[in-house]
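Reminder to self: C-alpha cells first, then the designed residues, so the page reads top to bottom the way the pipeline ran.
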C-alpha cells in the first residue's frame, strides 16, 4: 500500500515538452497525494497514464475557476488531505495559475511544499549567451491594454530581460521592440524548448525579426531573452 503524504499543498512541476524531464520526487508525490489539482486535466491525465498513476484524483484548477477552487483546496488540506498543484506544463505559478491558492494557503497557515523542476525560463536564459548574473523575468506581455507601457519599461532594465510570447504574437512583439529603439540589441529566441524541434536564434533583434518574418508561419512556444540596456 502506498504511504500517504502529510497534509500540505505540494507545488509540482511537470515537463514543458520532453516527458523525461519529470523528477522522481514529482512522480512519487503525484502517486501519493489525495488530490491533484490540474490546469488541464486532459494533459495531466495523459502524463499520469504514462507512469501508471491513477487519474481518479484529478480536479480542474485553472484561470477561470481559480478564485473558487483555491479556498476549497486549502480547506481540503486543513481537513487532512494532501493536495498537489500542477500546471499544463512547467512549474505552477510561473506564468500559470497558482498565485491565489498559495496566498490562501499562507493565510490559513497551511504547509506549502514547492518541488524544483522544469520551467522554460532557466534553460532559455542559460543557453542565451547573454549576461545571466542579473536578469529580470517579466512573463507574458499584456495583449492589449498596457502593452506599450510594459514594453517601454522592459527596455529600461539594465539587466537581461526574459519575456514569454505566443507563436501568433512573436513577430509583432519583435516589431514593437524594434520600433521602440531596441533593434540593435542582442537577443536570443528559444523556441519549443526540450522538444523535437527545439531552436535557438541568437543575433540582434532586427535580424531576428527579419528571419522570423520570412517564415510562412510561427509554431511553438517562445522565450525571448533580450540584452539589457546596461550591457
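Designed residues (231 positions):
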Amino acid at each position: 500500500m502506498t504511504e500517504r503524504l502529510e497534509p500540505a499543498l505540494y507545488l509540482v512541476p511537470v515537463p514543458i515538452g520532453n516527458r523525461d524531464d519529470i523528477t522522481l520526487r514529482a512522480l512519487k508525490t503525484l502517486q501519493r497525494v489525495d488530490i491533484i489539482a490540474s490546469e488541464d486535466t486532459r494533459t495531466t491525465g495523459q502524463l499520469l497514464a504514462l507512469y501508471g498513476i491513477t487519474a481518479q484524483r484529478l480536479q480542474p484548477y485553472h484561470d477561470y475557476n481559480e478564485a473558487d477552487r483555491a479556498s476549497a483546496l486549502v480547506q481540503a488540506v486543513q481537513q487532512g488531505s494532501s493536495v498537489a498543484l500542477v500546471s499544463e506544463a512547467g512549474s505552477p505559478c510561473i506564468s500559470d495559475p497558482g498565485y491565489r491558492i498559495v496566498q490562501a494557503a499562507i493565510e490559513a497557515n497551511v504547509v506549502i511544499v514547492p518541488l524544483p523542476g522544469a520551467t522554460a525560463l532557466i534553460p532559455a536564459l542559460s543557453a542565451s549567451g547573454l549576461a545571466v548574473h542579473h536578469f529580470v523575468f517579466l512573463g507574458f506581455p499584456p495583449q492589449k491594454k498596457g502593452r506599450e507601457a510594459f514594453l517601454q519599461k522592459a527596455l529600461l532594465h539594465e539587466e537581461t530581460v526574459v519575456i514569454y510570447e505566443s507563436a501568433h504574437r512573436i513577430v509583432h512583439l519583435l516589431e514593437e521592440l524594434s520600433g521602440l529603439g531596441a533593434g540593435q540589441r542582442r537577443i536570443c529566441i528559444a523556441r519549443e524548448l526540450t522538444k523535437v524541434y527545439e531552436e535557438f536564434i541568437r543575433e540582434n533583434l532586427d535580424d531576428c525579426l527579419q528571419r522570423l518574418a520570412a517564415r510562412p508561419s510561427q509554431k511553438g512556444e517562445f522565450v525571448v531573452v533580450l540584452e539589457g540596456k546596461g550591457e
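Helices lie at 24-32, 41-50, 66-78, 99-107, 121-126, 147-154, 170-182, 205-213.
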